Amino acid sequence: MNETKTEKNFHAIHITKDKCIGCVRCLSACPTRAIRVQDGRARIIGQLCIDCAECLRICPRDAIHSHTTSFAALDAFDYKVAIPSTVLYGQFGSSVLPNEILSALRRIGFDEVYDLSSICELNCAATEEYLNDHPRPRPYITSTCPVVVRIIQRRYASLCGQILPIEPPREIAAKILRTILPKSLGLPAERIGIIHITPCPAKIVSINSPASLAKSYLDGAISIRDIFPQVVKALRKSEEDSLMRHLFPETLFSGIGMGWSLSGGEIRGLKSHRAVAVSGIQDTMRVLDQVEGGLLQDIDLLECTVCPDGCVGGPLEVENRFLAKSRILELVAAAGEHAVVDQKDVSRLYHRNFLSFDHPVPPAEARPLDLDPATAIRKAKLRDKIDAGLPQKDCGICGAPDCRTLADDIVRGYARLEDCPFAETAKTKKEKR
């Protein structure tokens, strides 16, 4: 099943129940404790899920999958535009140049294809200007990874105000195209489909339910894994054309922006600020714990990406991430350090707030134990009492990821103490007597 922007499902990660064997590996992998196993099958609690895809990575039965935009969904538009993640450049080996990949995308059905590396460089320059203008708070946290934004909304609500309020490159690029294409083509904006090509299922969630925009400027996100076979086929059919493009590259790529798909790529272009990059879900949460605790205030900017090694480690890519990383580093070196974006243009857009959020990122709605405060307090005390009586094995046999979560589920009415095979219940006490 594929998902388009118009569908009312704002989660990209889903479980195929027929394939699930209830092995509980996804329980321990989920950083937000959003998965339960009941009746031998896993299920996801939507209110807790951040679409990080850690469960998808670890599932041994391919029972967990992602929904992204289908290629067939493009038929709804008269004019189709692709904005591929720079991760795509690392998927085809060292003999295929980025402009050949862009050309192949045109050949398989897109009317226009835009390289994102120059917009990544633009974002970096705007970030530098914002940090100069806003000395506090510290550190700001970049918004490029939509999973990081959502985990802050759900687990670190006090840090929402520290999310750098500049849109990620994919949205800036789409906004620029939404501004210019309807006029140049003479088409209504809704007839022009602007599609991101992504290594990560969380991008479709950020398009369907943007955290900082009234409405996304993108119409969908096709996974690299889905579009890869068509691009390979188009590349094979155009060997002569590829030779010409080797001789006359048509797109000016930014070496500063090309590296954005790697951990540390976002901050590499900063000239006068102290910045730190973190990748991987567990390390990201450890660092966010420190920031929430008031540490790292001597850092100006924190780049967090939940995929290992950055977006290049996204679960929807095809190439081994280490090979893809090596290829992208080659392209970064080849493109060089020179800027391709005019700082005056960036400054003009920045001061017009063209690059900014529509509104601050709000905290996610809390999940209280009860709507009545007094009852919620009583339930919290009961939860603590139940938790104290559990074995603290965090084994997952009960279907919850740990004993504390089982206690929480019990007071919410979603589980029973009897679900724990080690707990001493009224029945086991009677049997002992």
Explain this structure to me?
This protein has helices at residues 25-29, 54-58, 98-107, 117-133, 146-155, 169-185, 202-208, 224-236, 239-247, 255-258, 281-292, 321-335, 343-351, 373-389, 403-412, 426-432; strands spanning 13-15, 35-38, 41-44, 64-66, 79-84, 112-113, 140-141, 192-198, 220-223, 275-279, 301-305. The chain is an alpha/beta fold. The strands form 4 sheets. It has a 4-stranded parallel β-sheet, sandwiched between helices. Strands 7-11-10 form a 3-stranded parallel β-sheet, with helices on one face. A two-stranded antiparallel ribbon has the order 1-4. Helix 11 links the parallel strand 10 and strand 11. The longest helix has 17 residues, at 117-133.
One letter per element, helices H and strands E, the order comes to EHEEHEEHEHEHHEHEHHHEHEHHHHH
The description of the largest β-sheet is: 4 strands, parallel
**What's the tally of helices?**
16
Low-confidence stretches: 1-9
Q: Give the strand content.
A: 5-15%
Rounded to an integer, what's the Rg over CA atoms? 24 Å
Q: Which strand order does the major sheet show? A: 6-5-8-9
Secondary structure: elements and pairs:
Elements: E1 13-15, H1 25-29, E2 35-38, E3 41-44, H2 54-58, E4 64-66, E5 79-84, H3 98-107, E6 112-113, H4 117-133, E7 140-141, H5 146-155, H6 169-185, E8 192-198, H7 202-208, E9 220-223, H8 224-236, H9 239-247, H10 255-258, E10 275-279, H11 281-292, E11 301-305, H12 321-335, H13 343-351, H14 373-389, H15 403-412, H16 426-432
Parallel strand pairs: 5-6, 5-8, 7-11, 8-9, 10-11
Antiparallel strand pairs: 1-4, 2-3
